[in-house]
Design goal:
The chain is α+β, with helices and mostly antiparallel strands. The protein is built from 10 helices and 24 strands. The protein folds into 4 domains: 79 residues; 108 residues, Kinase associated domain 1, KA1 (TATA-Binding Protein), CATH 3.30.310; 115 residues, no CATH class; 152 residues, no CATH class. The strands form 5 sheets. It has a 6-stranded antiparallel β-sheet with strand order 2-3-22-23-1-24, covered by helices on one side.
Length: 509
């Protein structure tokens, strides 16, 4: 047990290190920043495995040693407890030497008095053994059983965590209203997909369709009340098999998956056309920067970008976007934006060479700004000239409309403003094991703390026509509480044996 305590201390210290030091599986960008800022210390942390504590070989070794130590300690204790449960209570020879002693003469003869004592003690849930006119009883085996359950449950926690985290995965899925998402590796955000070390690569293939995203805010404090994603559940063939609502602290369980409401955002639907041919069409997922101190996060605009590679020979284009879901938020900075209301987008058009065609980031080092302006819902922007080619012009904000009679070659349209929902999807078969182990830990702890082992003996000796009963009691824990229980049990035995014949003697050495 001492070895297990030392290993638990080491495990706790390692967990503290894994909490304070940025971890590669959780935040690789923070690890890179730490190494850049602390070159020597970062190199040491990297070689020591402190950037991936829970995957380091030494953390696994501590866990394995703790598991071995616990099992090596618990097996002999469990065998000893089972043997003790099968054995009958042992008779005591010298009752006068017990911490609690009581003598009383009763009307019943010795044999009847012993039977009455055994009957009373059994009703009080003592384990009883009778030898002639001597009765041995004991109680409180649940204390040791609770202690064993408590410690075996820790082994179950280790097994559940290793199996669940090792063979499962956790990732984030961003789904736009009306769109369908399938549980496959390519559909996760790669920066937030964490695979278990023993994951076999088989995703479930189940699907989700976000039919509606809803939220509610307190208009006085701008604090959230509810976030809800209304989902259609799809099987591997894409057929709808049910519906569900994912909300904060109320995950959806679908097959082997657990689906949590993690975040939300706006995804303006944009369509880019070149000479009448659509070259890009779909929602653009926007993100927010953290609001400065003293300002509501709801007042922050949303940012994103759209990349248009090779719109001209040897020339790429990108449109940098800044969205105010409620257009009044642009006119009145600091105003919280709860819902879509005359949404406004400020855009900048970049031309040059795109270094990265992915949707992860926009690198404009080899690009330059050609135009910038504003667009409302249903506006059409001429990307070549940076003017409004169709839809509401709203000249007070967006600037001049394009001259009439000139058909734009390259356009960008703002057609709709749906929400998107960020869901955290995880597969962890160890969750039921850990939950069951947690329940066992609580039950075992309660049993170990609130029960105690105590023993009681009764011997009936002939005394004329009646019997002289000698009681002896011993409590291994909670001795003060046992004194009252001992007195009540002795009174009940005396009453069952016909009552006292003469004055009794009570001693408490």
């Amino acid at each position: 047990m001492r070895t297990a305590l030392v290993l638990l201390l080491l495990l706790a210290l390692a967990s503290i290190a894994g909490t304070l030091v940025p971890q590669i599986p959780n935040s690789p960008e923070r690890v890179a920043q730490f190494i850049d800022a602390h070159e020597l210390l970062g190199a040491f942390y990297l070689r020591a495995g402190l950037f991936d504590v829970f995957g380091a070989w030494w953390f696994g070794l501590i866990t394995a040693l703790l598991f071995t130590s616990l099992v090596a300690c618990l097996l002999p204790r469990s065998r000893a407890h089972l043997r003790a449960m099968r054995q009958r209570p042992v008779q005591a020879r010298e009752l006068d030497a017990m911490p609690l002693v009581r003598e009383v003469t009763v009307l019943a003869p010795p044999e009847a008095a012993a039977e009455a004592a055994a009957r009373v003690l059994r009703r009080r849930r003592f384990r009883v053994a009778v030898e002639g006119t001597a009765v041995a009883a004991e109680k409180g085996a649940l204390r040791e059983a609770g202690s064993l359950i408590f410690h075996w449950a820790f082994v179950l926690v280790l097994i559940g965590a290793i199996v669940g985290k090792g063979t499962g995965y956790t990732g984030r899925a961003a789904i736009v209203e009306g769109q369908t998402w399938t549980d496959a590796s390519l559909n996760y955000d790669p920066t937030h997909l964490r695979l278990g070390r023993y994951f076999d690569g088989s995703f479930s293939g189940l699907g989700l369709r976000l039919t509606d995203y809803r939220d509610a805010w307190d208009p006085r404090t701008a604090l959230p009340r509810t976030f809800e994603s209304h989902l259609d559940l799809l099987d591997e063939q894409g057929a709808t098999v049910g519906t569900a609502v994912a909300s904060v602290n109320h995950p959806v369980r679908y097959g082997p998956l657990r689906i949590f409401q993690y975040g939300f955002g706006w995804a303006p639907a944009l369509q880019a056309s070149k000479d009448g041919t659509v070259i890009a069409d779909g929602p653009v997922l926007m993100s927010q920067e953290t609001a400065p101190a003293g300002r509501s996060q709801l007042s922050q605009p949303w940012t994103g970008f759209l990349k248009l590679p090779e719109v001209r020979p040897q020339t790429d284009m990108a449109v940098d976007l800044e969205l105010w879901p409620d257009g009044r938020g642009f006119l009145f900075p600091g105003m919280p934006m709860f819902d879509a209301n005359a949404p406004l987008i400020r855009y900048r058009i970049w031309e040059g060479k795109l270094l990265d065609p992915s949707k992860a980031s926009l690198d404009t080092r080899f690009m330059h700004v050609t135009h910038q302006g504003f667009m409302w819902m249903d506006s059409v922007v001429d990307l070549d000239r940076g003017c409004i080619a169709g839809g509401p012009a709203s000249g007070q904000v967006t600037g001049a409309a394009c001259p009439e009679g000139v058909d734009p070659a390259l356009t960008l349209s703002f057609t709709a403003l749906p929400h998107y929902s960020v869901l955290q999807v995880s597969k962890d078969v160890g969750v039921p094991i850990v939950l069951g182990a947690a329940i066992l830990i609580v039950l075992g702890l309660l049993a170990a703390l609130y029960t105690s082992r105590r023993k009681l003996w009764v011997r009936a000796d002939a005394d004329g026509e009646g019997s002289r009963l000698i009681f002896g009691g011993l409590a291994l824990q909670r001795r003060a509480q046992f004194e009252g229980e001992f007195a009540r049990a002795a009174d009940a035995v005396v009453a069952a044996a016909g009552g006292p014949m003469a004055r009794e003697t009570v001693t408490a050495p």
